[in-house]
Amino acid sequence: MRLSRYLLPVMKESPADAQIVSHKLMLRAGLVRQTAAGIYAWLPLGLKVLRNIERIVREEQDRAGAVELLMPTMQSADLWRQSGRYDAYGPEMLRITDRHDREMLFGPTNEEMVTALFRDAARSYRDLPRTLYHIQWKFRDEVRPRFGVMRGREFLMKDAYSFDMDEAGARHSYNRMFVAYLRTFARMGLRAIPMQADTGPIGGDLSHEFIVLAPTGESDVFYHSNWDAAAEPADVDFDDAGALQAIVDGYTTDYAATDEKRDEAREAAAGDALRQSRGVEVGHIFYFGTKYSASMGLAVQGADGAPVNPHMGSYGIGVSRLVGAIIEASHDDRGIVWPDAVAPYAVGLINMRADDAACAAAADDLYARLQAAGVEVLYDDRDERGGAKFATMDLVGVPWQIVIGPKGLANGVVEVKRRATGEKVELSVEDALARVSG
Ligand code: ATP
Ligand code: MG
What we know:
The chain is α+β, with helices and mostly antiparallel strands.
């Protein structure tokens, strides 16, 4: 992408209304703009990151055996009356009346809708187990939307829902998601700790929140220092219930709990190894048994012919919140430092002298060659000062920078910089190509 044709409204100064670093940087680097309280437009660069996160989430859901569908944002109030949650949900639900005076709502979550869909589609135990998911916008009329996309009112969520014949099956489905989440966050360069959590208004008895440690996080968390060195899970066969359970047992051995679920005995046992921090909740998984299947009349025929209410769980990931969480975890005083896996572009190509015909020709040529090699490039071809171009590239956090200038060109080299470390090397064009596409 040529910057001369892009929409990248970067800002030098931090906007006054942004309190935390990720919010400041998302505005300064031109990723998002607020269009109404807690509602954001995703500008081109921000959208690239959002799509990359979505792709990782989708790949790991698919790998774990979940099946994607897409449910609408608009739902009918009648659906929510079936579970009894229409009145219980409270003012966070955005309620809308259509032209025929029908009561509608902008979905804050989809337990009711997916339960109704599955009720119409599943007949017998042969249709189970199933885990269905979608990646769709949600609306929650949060009292205090803040910190940018971290706590928006409209936000993008991956939500999955599992249906099993019994509790043992439901536990297997839960463990699939538990391990899928560890893999998902690790691929984004994040350490997310699964913590014992309250089940909240959804109810149930088995629940973990996945928390990324960050001083600006909204949750108070307590954990054993062993978590500081935790590794990501090895490859696993998701159909092997025993192997999955062993992994989950391994990851739940060391203490980690949110404020609501603190355990005095386990904290005493941890002694000096107990750590307290703040964290950002990027995912939440629940098992809630037959709460929705029973209240909404979802029953399938069991192997013995008798009707069974499936055991269910639901599993959320805050896709748009993750953009902020990744920046909280990965930035420096010059801007964002994107992990390679989610970076909007792999390479930032800077032409130091747009007014120099040889530089422009060399930069155009390298741009074409990078694209031909399948490398995503943000090419600063604008007629600007070199210093401003460096500052912009550092701010937007592209992992590799290649700088083309007249001096280097005369010596047959370009400068390659790694954004994360600041390390710079002079390489031939061939070697530069190999370095950034490796
Ligand atoms: P929180 O405790 O932060 O309000 P929640 O418990 O209400 O979250 P869930 O219902 O578990 O959230 O939703 C699943 C995921 O969606 C959360 O783990 C979080 O990452 C994300 N999420 C929830 N609310 C918001 C929001 N207002 N803005 C952005 N992401 C959100
Ligand atoms: Mg939660």
